[in-house]
From TrEMBL:
UniProtKB keywords: Chloroplast, Membrane, Plastid, Transit peptide, Transmembrane, Transmembrane helix, Transport
UniProt protein name: Sugar phosphate transporter domain-containing protein
Transmembrane regions listed in the UniProt entry: 20-37, 49-69, 89-114, 134-155, 161-180, 192-211
Subcellular location: Plastid, Chloroplast membrane
Domain Sugar phosphate transporter per the UniProt entry, residue ranges: 19-307
GO molecular function: carboxylic acid transmembrane transporter activity; organophosphate ester transmembrane transporter activity
Amino acid sequence: VELSDQEMGSVAAKGPKVKIGIYFAVWWALNVVFNIYNKKVLNVFPYPWLTSTLSLATGSLMMLISWGTGLAEVPNTDLDFWKSLFPVAVAHTIGHVAATVSMSKVAVSFTHIIKSGEPAFSVLVSRFLLGETFPAQVYLSLLPIIGGCALAAVTELNFNMIGFMGAMISNLAFVFRNIFSKKGMKGKAVGGMNYYACLSLLSLAILTPFAIAVEGPQMWVEGWKTAVSQIGPQVIWWVAAQSVFYHLYNQVSYMSLDEISPLTFSIGNTMKRISVIVSSIIIFRTPVQPVNALGTAIAILGTFIYSQENDARKIYKGLNGGNDFKHS
Ligand code: 3PG
């Protein structure tokens, strides 16, 4: 069958859209599964420092095997690359462990409601620490984000200060992660998948001593015995699932950044949170009051308005020097 020039053009135009659609669907699905298993594990084995470490360790191991077997190409890195990756890894580690600590204390939905306020942190850090200015509409779009998150927080039935602060710290840390990665990846030839693999390895090295200091093997052994006595040996599969899915969703999200602009990415990330919030409320039967749901809806709507208003390529999710960053 011969296609006309016009038909060929339309197939070519649909190709990237289909690819991005697939990336998004896979990213959200993996993220929902991660969040559910992560919470199932934390409910019976509340050691977020260890589970965060295991997520990074599993991802690192998967990538070492992929490199060793030739499944993935070994990245060509030098000392400068690892030096520039270091601040990214510190921020990634803090953001990851803080989110997991949060989820060990509050409902998954609540952590993600607060995390939907990340754009507000991005603007505030860029404004006050980097001196960037934004159009008035961007600042105005922060009002529903902050107001909605605040309304959801004050009406949260199972509010817990550590859970709240963990999600807030995670927001702040991930904003720095994104700013540092943008700087670190400029002009480097490491693609999204390998960039995230190196990030996992370095974060694992940073987090391990802290996990041992904060929780430690004695607590883990006792906690594990309790978890197995409650659930049975299959709890190990829950841990495996949360670890594998953590790596996979992050890997896909970094890979998608090779293809899309940070603006599209930030919209995708917000839509991801909606799927996590809704699915976790259903699965864990989280009680929700109408006014709490209203606060969540306002915050998420605010994030969409923000995405429309903000020239996001400047500040948000500048993770890996994807196409848009090469021009910025
Ligand atoms: C984590 O454990 O790192 C968080 O759940 C990550 O959250 P995010 O990728 O949804 O921002």
